[in-house]
Amino acid sequence: MYSKQIEEFCEQFARFIMSDMPPDWPISYIEGCWYIHHTFIKDLYLILEEAKKKFSEVEISTMFKNPSRIMHYLFWFGYPFSSLSVFQKTQLVTNLLQFVSHYRKSDIYCSNGRNIIWENERLKRELLSSIWFRAQNKDFGSLKRILSIIRTTLALYCEAIYPLCHPACHEIHGYYELTDDAIILVREYYDLCPEVWNLALSSCIDSVIIIEEYGRINMSIDIINAHRAVTMNSLADNLHGFSIRVNGEHIGEPLKVSKVLNFLLEMANKINKITLNYSRENWIRKIIEVNYYQLKPIRDMLSENWEPSEEILGISSEPVPDDFISYYEQIRDFYLMPEDKAFSSLVGFLKKEYVGDSHDC
Question: With a threshold of 0.70, does the pTM exceed it?
Answer without folding.
Answer: yes
